[in-house]
Amino acid sequence: MTTAVASAATSRWRRRDVLVLAPPLTLAICFLPIAGGLIGTILPAFGWLPALDARTLTLTPWRDLLAAPELAGSLWLTLTSGGLAAIATFLIAILFCAAAHGTSGFRRLHRWLTPLLAVPHAAMAIGLAFLLAPSGWIVRLLSPWATGTDLPPDYGIVHDPAGIGLTVGLIVKELPYLLFMILAALSQLHAERYLAAARSLGYGPVAAWFKVILPQIYPLIRLPIFAVLAFSLSVVDMALLLGPSTPPTLAVLLLRGFNDPDLTMRLSAAAGALLHLALVAAAILLWILGEQVCRRIFRAWLADGDRGGHGTTARLVGALPARIAFLLSAGALLALLFWTVAARWPFPAALPRVWTLDNWLHQMPLLAQPLLTSLGTGLAATGVALALTLACLENEQRRGLHPTQRLLWLLYLPLLLPQISFLFGVQVQLVWLDADGTWLAVAWSHLLFVLPYVFLSLEDPFRALDERYSRAALCLGASPARVFWRVKLPLLRRPVATAAAIGFAVSVAQYLPTLFAGGGRWPTLTTEAVALSATADRRVIAVAALLQALLPLLAFAAVGLLAPVRAWRGRSR
Question: Taking burial as the number of CB atoms within 10 A of a residue's CB, which of 80, 271, 321, 329 is the most buried?
Fold first, then answer.
């Protein structure tokens, strides 16, 4: 009876419900430009770019690309650093979860992951450079009592030819994201019940996690794993800050081609962008093939009945790599903070000899415009992404659509495609529309990447909301719109606020979209931090990087304060 009344109340609104326009509008705003961007990259890759008077289809751009002396080294560096980083991040994440699940530290993990998630890639990379450089903080802490010298060593892993520093940086930055997605999957699975059942049958904690939990959560974290793999193979700002320059990674090499004064280099760079896209696609297919191989190898082990024992050693060893990564993250942020207030910090002093706030006073006027651009762009992109996401999810629920009946999975393409493979084509579209270099173009380019993360963060909490709340309100005569604003949204205030904070952090961290869409006219804190990294003054670099990190950190701090404030208001009534 109740369900019938609610269905009748809902059906009266369907004919005049404008939310049916939300999914096509969302796809038009985000997916169509990406498809156009790919076309705008494919045509120049084969010699067609009328803006440069190139109107003949030819393979010359590919011949020029393959003749580049740095191409082979760039491909190898991209595969080794990005591929190893993605594999290591996945292994470290699942080992840590298997070793630490059920401990007090694991229950507090969500709280500690939040600030690490908030720190943009460029800020973390700069902090790691300050930490791991030959004259970095780690060597300072070890000198001279452990190193036996008062001089920095001649070797280091920052800008090293093998890309070790870049690999370490990618692991440190992507590990919190993957752990966050694993925690979300575990909350959907009710893992504690399965682990309790496995423990009652005599399985050890680590064996129970691998045999019972991992096979169930892996399909839920598959897309985030692919996103980590694609990002590791195509990142630009971290490669500029931590990777080698001769040769650089493929993404950095292509960026040089797109920025070359010789405009014809854009044709071969477009061909390289397609090669990069094929490289990422091949890596994802190879990962899928690896899944099948692992399934065959470990199928017998899953069913052999081995209980695994108490797993004390496995728990200690399994959690160690993740803890080292967390320590490196904390050390990088501390190094940034110390350099922002250091007036004099000679090597090998462990701490600055003279402290000052002059660094902030001198740099803040210069960073005011990038700060305002980052803030305004982030708020605009996040607000539009939230509105589109909520409209699409509400439309899906009102019309009774199953998630598999929609095309909104296309929104996740920006997470799987290398940015440089379609951003050049997007820039071509903006030039054709006479919108290149405008603030709206920058905000829209950020929206392309903010929207997938906001949707990914909000779709599961929205769909998991108990429908009985909505049915009860509909039976009391409330319209679907009133139910959404007065019932659903208040119940979802914490997930919505978290999704907004994640979207804002993603916007602040964007580097390539700002360069391609802004044309250098709208510098943000991210572009300024990367540009300043070429200078020799660590104080200036640290101020820009820490200020960049503070914006999303404040956003997540506001989310953390939301629940206590609401709870206090409820008790005061």
Answer: 271
Count of other CB atoms within 10 angstroms of residue 305? 9
- Give the domain extent around 180: 71-356
| Cβ–Cβ under 8 Å, residues 78 and 250 | yes
Is 15 a residue whose pLDDT tops 90?
A: no
Contact yes or no for 380/442 (Cβ under 8 A): no
Torsion over CA: 554, 556, 559, 561 (sign) = negative
Are residues 83 and 44 part of one domain?
A: no
- Residues counted in the chain: 573
Q: Is the Cβ–Cβ distance between 570 and 490 less than 8 Å?
A: no
Q: How far is 296 from 284, CA to CA, in rounded Å?
A: 19
Q: Please report, for the domain that includes residue 381, its CATH number.
A: 1.10.3720.10
CB 381 within 8 A of CB 443: yes
228 confidence band (pLDDT: 50, 70, 90): very high
pLDDT category of residue 511 using cuts at 50, 70 and 90: very high
d(CA 138, CA 118) in angstroms, rounded, equals: 24
Q: What is the largest CA-CA distance in the chain?
A: 82
pLDDT in tens, 404-426: 445 667 778 888 889 998 998 88
Q: Residue 274 to residues 52, 63, 182, 261, 448: CA-CA distances in angstroms?
A: 19, 14, 32, 21, 19
- Triad 401, 402, 407: Cα angle to 5°: 85
CA distance 287 to 218: 13
How would residue 348 be classed by pLDDT, with cut points 50, 70 and 90? confident
Those residues with Cβ within 8 angstroms of residue 165's Cβ, 6 or more apart along the chain or in another chain: 128, 129, 132, 156, 157, 158, 159, 242, 243
| Residue 366 belongs to a domain | yes
